[in-house]
Design goal:
It is a single chain. The protein is mostly helical. It folds into five domains: 4-118, no CATH class; 143-230 and 310-348; 235-298; 406-464, no CATH class; 470-500, no CATH class. Helices cover 59% and strands 3% of the residues. The protein is built from 23 helices and four strands. It has helices at residues 4-27, 33-62, 67-76, 80-97, 106-118, 143-150, 160-166, 180-200, 206-222, 235-240, 252-256, 260-270, 278-286, 309-332, 334-348, 352-356, 358-373, 393-398, 418-423, 428-437, 451-468, 472-475, 488-497, and strands at 404-407, 413-416, 477-479, 485-487. A hairpin with a 5-residue loop joins strand 1 and strand 2. The longest helix is centred in the N-terminal third of the chain and has 30 residues, at 33-62. The termini are far apart.
Length: 500
């Protein structure tokens, strides 16, 4: 029954189930690095499916072809019963032709996803491919990019560890070395970093990150502040030149004292030839003093602009934009970069025999990670230590952890061992229970765990305090006229009777 309204209902159900599955996936405990990456990839698949379902249901609500409106009118019109029986007839006819057709509810699909998450098998243990060097997303594998880098012409040859630290120092490479081969190297480096981040952090939106980089790069390029591409200083002065007032000079010898560079600038400003020795330049410039028109033989030939110069600028801009992307991606993989450098240094410090056992160590570490993901064997229900494993049984007996203490004031909470029991009287749970009973948590109630005993002791303490309290009527002393000492009550009675 694939009507438009049924499709809408199914898409809404799918969106709700996908949202519930994503929440459960995020709340699921990830015991290790491998499971964390697999969980993010499962979330990515669920999120893509959610986006697709949302787009489909939005398209149905738009109803560009008007079919949904026609279907609603058919169901709500005067012949709704005939429409109902027609659809019922078509359903019966379908199952008559396909008697063995099985309808699988949508809940079964999401139950399978939950089973994959709770009980991963060997088939779905690795949801993404990594090389052996990458260690399932822990380290970078830049060996191929490193080979391309050291084969670039005019580039200083470095070792792999140094390359890991400086592969994003592209601003140190001279501008004239950034040619077509260099662009191919940058593109391969970008391709690897993009693919690595897609595998390690699938939920990261790289397009948004790189779009922000492009905006910032455009501003830096227009302001000539992008690193590695300095503005050519003095180009305007070299091409245009600076005029020189010749009325202050009486001979070409005085002009010669200005130097080659200043004479060249003055000749270029007049459009004259600027070559030759110092004397020739000074004589050529001095010959123009007071002349209304310049000698055509002295004029420099106008150089036409090379047609490929604009293309070269665009090529340089494209290479610089790729460098900006490399800077951003290198920032995103900074933690993996540090871990990779430490891993390579650790491998290089091994002996020949240890290198031979590297595969065995890798398999052992994988099995150890799998063991860490499992529940530790603990038949005696011993407490776990700092390593997540049960403590030794002799230590368990030594600290008296096999003895349980129950406190009714704490809500029948059970404490293991005398040390934890004594410490709990000063903790928040016991103090909260005493506050609820209206009893101060003082030293008088130490080792009292029953509510009845605490209330009885509190009543006894209040009675004792009441008896010890100073009573003015009975204990305040007065002296009559004869010198007899009486209490206050007797003194007041004698005074009222006039017997003092």
């Amino acid at each position: 029954m694939e009507t438009l309204l049924e499709q809408q209902r199914r898409y809404h159900e799918e969106r709700e189930r996908l949202m519930d599955a994503m929440v459960k996936e995020m709340l699921h405990k990830k015991p290790g690095h491998r499971e964390t990456i697999n969980s993010e990839h499962r979330l990515k698949l669920l999120l893509d499916q959610y986006t697709e379902s949302t787009a489909n249901v939005y398209e149905l609500y738009e109803d560009k072809d008007g079919q949904r409106k026609e279907e609603v009118q058919a169901l709500s019109g005067p012949n709704e019963f005939s429409e109902f029986y027609n659809r019922l007839k078509s359903i019966k006819e379908f199952y008559r032709r396909h008697p063995n057709e099985i309808s699988v509810p949508m809940s079964i699909e999401f139950e399978e996803i939950a089973k994959m998450r709770e009980n991963p098998t060997e088939d779905n243990a690795n949801l993404v491919d990594f090389t052996d060097e990458e260690g399932y997303g822990k380290y970078l594998d830049l060996h191929e990019c490193y080979e391309k880098y050291i084969n670039l012409k005019g580039i200083e040859k470095v070792d792999y560890i140094t390359y890991l630290s400086t592969f994003d120092h592209l601003f140190d490479i001279p501008k004239d070395r950034k040619n077509a081969e260099y662009k191919k190297y940058i593109e391969s480096l970008l391709e690897y970093l993009t693919g690595y981040l897609t595998r390690v952090r699938p939920l990261l939106d790289l397009n948004t990150e790189l779009s922000g980089v492009n905006k910032e790069f455009t501003m830096q390029w227009e302001n000539n502040t992008f690193p590695g591409w300095p503005k050519e200083a003095g180009s305007a002065l070299t091409n245009v030149g600076a005029h020189l007032e010749l009325s202050a000079f009486s001979s070409w010898e005085e002009l010669a004292s200005l130097g080659l560079d200043r004479l060249k600038s003055a000749l270029m400003a007049l459009g004259l030839k600027c070559g030759g020795t110092l004397e020739e330049r000074a004589q050529r410039l001095f010959s123009t003093k007071g002349e209304a028109s310049l000698d055509p033989n002295l004029l420099a030939r106008k150089t036409q602009r090379k047609p490929g110069k604009g293309k070269n600028v665009e090529k340089q801009r494209e290479i610089a934009r790729l460098e900006a992307h490399v800077y951003k991606l290198a920032e995103l993989v900074s933690s993996h970069r540090v871990a990779t450098k430490e891993n390579v240094q650790r491998k290089q410090a091994r002996t020949e025999g240890e290198r031979g056992d590297s595969d065995a160590e890798a398999s052992a570490s994988e099995s150890e990670e799998e063991d860490d993901n499992d529940v530790p064997y603990n038949p005696k229900n011993l407490p776990l230590g700092w390593d997540g494993k049960p403590i030794p049984y002799w230590l368990y007996k030594l600290h008296g952890l096999n003895i349980s203490y129950n406190c009714e004031i704490c809500g029948n909470f059970t404490y293991k061992g005398p040390k934890a029991f004594q410490r709990h009287f000063a903790e928040w749970r016991h103090a909260h229970g005493m506050r609820c009973l209206g009893i101060p948590n003082t030293a008088h109630f130490a080792n009292v765990t029953q509510i009845e005993d605490a209330l009885a002791l509190w009543e006894k303490l209040k009675a004792q305090k009441q008896s010890e309290r100073w009573q003015p009527e009975q204990e305040e002393e007065f002296e009559d006229s004869l010198g007899n000492v009486v209490n206050r009550k007797t003194y007041e009675d004698l005074k009222r009777q006039g017997l003092l």
